[in-house]
Every structure is written in structure tokens, then in C-alpha cells.
Amino acid sequence: MTERLKLAALIGSTRERRYGDKVGNWFAQEAQRLGDFELSLIDVADIDLPSRHLAEPTPAMKAFTSKLAKADAFVVVTPEYNHSMPGHLKHAIDQATEEWHAKPVGFVSYGGVSGGLRAVEHLRQVFAELHAVTVRDAVSFHGVWEHFADGAGPLDPKRSSGAVKTMLHQLKWWALALKEARSRAPYTVG
Predict the structure, then answer these.
(1) Which helix (H) or strand (E) covers residue 158, if one does?
(2) In which domain, by residue range, is 178 found?
(3) CA–CA separation, 132 and 178 (whole Å)
(4) Which among 3, 77, 105, 177 is placed 20 to 30 Å from 118, CA to CA?
């Protein structure tokens, strides 16, 4: 395959004074530096999703799911709220179905002592139900405020960059394998 794989990275926090945009932008820079993917950064806070699941999608919902449909792979940038993922992130994920099917998902998480890993474990279950494949390795920031205070980056940039490289390597492998499989036979449920 000569065309670059398309990666959609979702920033999952919508809170004021969040770290999601800082962590998401840092990840985007790392991913672009590595150059294996054409990156699209999607901030859930910027999507005008209705509070209810409507039978007919709104223009904002159609625009969002269209971006997802074009992606070969995903990375979810998530904090941990109350030992799980943010509600707005889950609501956004639930707006799509087939757009997730047979595509790989990686995670960049952040938070306090757990570094968002409990949110990632819940997201793995959600994406399994959506027929997506999650990669094993993730990027996690424990005590995120220490890493990204005042525009600073990770405390150990070499280690954090290495974690991104490992995760994206796995994501690329799965993205190539699943894209080829989908081109040979459409993925169907059931």
C-alpha cells in the first residue's frame, strides 16, 4: 500500500481547565513526527452532539461519523473520571457503529495515581462490543498536572515518545492487516 494510513485521534474530555487538549496536542505532534499516519485530531468538546440519541442524525453527527468512517485507525485520548471514561466521550463513541468495525484503537490516558488506566480498561470493553480491535500497549500519564503544567511536556520525554512509538507500531500493523482484510471481504456482524 502506497497511500498513508489515516489516523483519527479523539480528545475525550470536555471539562473546563482540562488537560485533554494539552495531552492530545502533544500526542499529535509525536504521531506526526513519526510520520506513519495522516492524522486528524477530533476534539469531542467541539462536536455539537445532541444530548439524546436521535433516530435521524444531525449535520454535526453526520460530520463526526464521516470523519470516523474515513479513518483506518483510532487513538482515544482520555482522562479517568470516577474510575471510568468521561460521559461525553462515551456518548460520542455511541454515535457511530459500522465506522468502528474491524479497525484498531489505541489509547493515550491520563489522570492521577492510575494515569487513566481504569478508563482504558472500560473503553476496551466498549470497543470490543463495537467490533474494533484494541492494541495492547498504551501511553499513560500518572499525575498529569506534573507533566503538562504551564505548557510543559512529559517529565521523561524519551520514555513517553518511546511509548507512543510502540503503540503506533502496533496500531499500524493492525491497521494494515485489517484494511487489507476489509478490501478482500466486507466485515459483517453476525
Answers:
(1) helix 157-184
(2) 5-184
(3) 10
(4) 177
Confidence of residue 2 (pLDDT cuts 50, 70, 90): low
Helices (H), 15-58: 20-34
pLDDT in tens, 97-111: 999 999 999 999 999
Q: Is residue 189 part of a domain?
A: no
Res 153: pLDDT: 86
Burial 89-126 (b: 16+ CB within 10 A, else e): bbbbbebbeebbbbbbbbbbbbbeebbbbbbbbebbeb
Is 125 within a domain?
yes
Orientation angle between helical segments 157-184 and 20-34, nearest 10 degrees: 70
Contact of 5 with 73, CB cutoff 8 Å: yes
Residues 81, 82, 87, 92, CA torsion sign:
positive
- Count up the domains in the chain and report the number: 1
Ramachandran region, residue 151 (left: φ > 0; alpha: ψ -120 to 50; beta: rest): left
As given in the structure block, the three cell numbers for residue 163 are 511509548
Which residues, other chains included, contact 95 with Cβ-Cβ below 8 Å and sequence gap of 6+?
A: 49, 53, 57, 61, 64, 65
